[in-house]
Amino acid sequence: MKTFLYIYLSIFFWNTAFSQSDVIQFTTDDELPEGRITCIAQSQRGFIWVKTSTETTYFNGYEWTSLPTSEVPDPPIFNCASDLKAIDDSIRERLASYKISSYIVDDHGSTWVGTQENGIFYFPKKENDQSTDVVFEFIGFNNKIVRDFSNEIDVDHRYQTLSIAYSTLDFRSDRKPQYRYKIEGIHTDWILTKDPKVQFTSLPDRGTYVFKIQALQPGLDWSATRELNLNFLTPFYKTYVFIAIWVVLMILFLIAVIRWYFRRRLKVERLESKLKDLEGKALQSQMNPHFVF
After folding, report:
1. pLDDT in tens, 119-169
2. Where are the beta strands (DSSP E) in the chain?
3. Which of 138, 186, 194, 211 is the most buried (most CB within 10 A)?
């Protein structure tokens, strides 16, 4: 009876420990491709990248996204031969019944541990150590997604829609930030949203605008403003160069038409003059005395 009670209490306290907010487990129920993790890494932008036995996927703070290797931007350096002995002893004890395959300590000092069958365990370092700064994830033009870009984007006039995805990289799944954004030159006030992506369907046909966004976590102030310069490219037929060329061509065309008209008129006048000369000669020949009877 005591043995049974001991086992029951051990299981109870173990499950209670993993239900606390100081550890989060990601499995296939959280859209992780599979539970077998081979490598974990963090990219330069801060996203957490994971290699499974079949796919490469990354976490942006609210969902996992799998990509072919050829489409992976900002590629992280995977270190599959990480020293598992360097894992914190307290974390190792809590995961004693799991087969650990890899781990990393991210930029905020939080630990990510991959297992061979049970997905990933995330141990946040501290509540106030998480980033609230906004990171741009991808830019969408119509149905085209661009993940490798700088802070200055050229928007072709043929695009009908523009999508901008972003995240705060706060990896605690129970915290959803609020965002506010605006485009200088178009919006006068901030627009509030909880959606990690915004889409614009009415785009300017020319000019440079600045997309600004901030994030707000519960109990904190608005984050620093993140900016993205949007250069809406003017259609060629609306550029000053094209208009100038068109005006010059029209002037040249008018000059050519006028010259053709006057040349044709001069030619007609010459023909008329020649005909008159021939008529005069014909009359003179008729008045010749040799032809008078």
Report:
1. 999 988 765 545 568 889 889 998 888 887 888 888 888 888 999 999 887
2. 24-26, 37-42, 48-52, 56-59, 64-67, 100-105, 111-115, 120-123, 135-141, 144-146, 152-155, 162-167, 178-184, 191-193, 197-200, 207-216, 226-232
3. 211
